[in-house]
Amino acid sequence: MSPVNPVSGSHEFPVYRMQHFDLHGIAHGSRSAAVNLEARSLTGWSTSRHCVISKLQDLTIDHFRNIRIKAGALLVVLPNDLSRLNSEEKQHLLLLEHAMLAQEISIPVYFATWTAELDTILDEVSQNVISNDLSKSAAEAMISSIAANGYQFVVSPGTTSIKQDIKVATIQGHLSGYSQEGKVPTIAIVAHYDSFGVAPNLSFGADSNGSGVVILLELARLFSNLYSDPKTRGKYNLVFLLTGGGKINYQGSKKWLEDQLDALDGSIIQYFQDSSFVMCLDTLSFGDSLYMHVSKPPKDNSPASLFFKELKTAADQFPAITVDGVHKKINLADDILAWEHERYSIRRLPAFTLSTLKSHRELIRGTILDTRQNLNLDKLTQNTKLIAEALASFIYNTSHGEIFGGSLDVDKKFTEAWINYLTSQPRSPQLLSNKDNALVMFLKDNFNKYLRDVKVSYAIPDKRDPDFLFYDVTKGIVNVYSVKPAIFDLVLTLAIILYLGIVYFLIQKFPFLYSTA
């Protein structure tokens, strides 16, 4: 505690731990959680006994790689409003996140949001570097060391252990079509609802993939109105899937496909063999271009090809939007798939992903920068209408102007309410992996309003050879204690000894001093 002001000698701040999970037997993120170390600045630390504290803007990739190997812990202070970062600072954060998640890290790594108190601590820790400045005289360095305030960082989250009862939910519902010819083909509309970033509790995923979820929910609302009237009932079954584990290699889609293929009777999959497709939605408010990603170019006059033509035709209503196709083969040697449609393409189902991103390598797909403040609601609403119009034109085989208008139009208030709700809470996979999760149940209830036969299935990691594992510590409290350096204790001890020596001398020599006086 501070001998001058005991009240200011201790502080508490909420901190958010870096990602910690295993995927396909490979460890990702920070493997440790407990911290009890002296705080040092980015330029003042030297050993594994130090916890490095740094502002985000000051921390470079080279700094991080050196800290990861030699320091004891790292605390990164984030701006209190990430949306205020300029483009250069945002790019810096994107690259830093990517580098931090590229391999496992043995030391604890935490993130904290800027506060005035934390800024004061940062300044004082940075000033302590002066004592190590070789340009200063020995006396100046000594005085600086004695006067400096040190800090001890303590985070005691308990033992980090594998999370138990992991259940990654996938929600399913459908609208039944009708055809006089008998057999009714099926279209599946898929979006994963989880998010990703360097820290689970800071991952809000507004665009990736809150936008995909919002568009799927709006499509369910619009087409439920059409399918409720026998006169406007489409000739295609529509299956809606909100999948979990999208950010961990699309585990929800993988498990759902396995369940469908095992259920030979009444399986939805059997309908896919007859002129239909799987449409996945991912990151749909980023730019003015809309891309249709495929693993194999669709044949002429195939359902996917015809839908692409309808998409380009519908885009004529929106001069600012361009529609293009992107072909990328599936690399079976890679453990991680690029897009969700690849899960279905591997099963030889015609599938594609609609996205405003041209490449799956765009860093915006997994960052804490993906917040509500950085999402363009107008673009999201515009792309919702474009996809709805194209899908309706395909289902009803008509291209005569817009289908959704008037009372049956894309509702901007609906999309805004949903994106506000989805981004009001972090949605990293491990935070949603408990059974009866509140967000999952709320999405299920919304499905029940518009769809039939709503079901929830769960992807559960195998106990012997799990595809994925989560760990149970994602946030904590850092206790910051104000301490003086060891040299201060040495000088204080010497001063006390000198004081006691003088008192002892005065007592012993008091008669002599008295008589002399």
UniProtKB/TrEMBL annotation:
Q: What is its main location?
A: endoplasmic reticulum
The record's annotation in Pfam families points to: Peptidase_M28
For membrane topology, the record states: Single-pass membrane protein
Domain (Peptidase M28) ranges:
185-389
- Which segments cross the bilayer? 486-507
Q: Where can this protein be found?
A: Endoplasmic reticulum membrane
Highest taxon listed in the record's lineage: Eukaryota
Name the UniProt key words of this record, in alphabetical order: Endoplasmic reticulum, Glycoprotein, Membrane, Signal, Transmembrane, Transmembrane helix
Sorted alphabetically, the Gene Ontology BP terms of this entry are: regulation of signal transduction
- GO annotation, cellular component aspect: endoplasmic reticulum membrane
Q: Which Gene3D superfamilies match?
A: Zn peptidases
Entries under PANTHER family matching the protein: NICALIN (PTHR31826)
The similarity comment for this entry is: Belongs to the nicastrin family.
- Name this protein carries in UniProt: BOS complex subunit NCLN
What species does this protein belong to?
A: Asbolus verrucosus (Desert ironclad beetle)
Q: Which lineage ranks, top first, belong to the organism behind this chain?
A: Eukaryota, Metazoa, Ecdysozoa, Arthropoda, Hexapoda
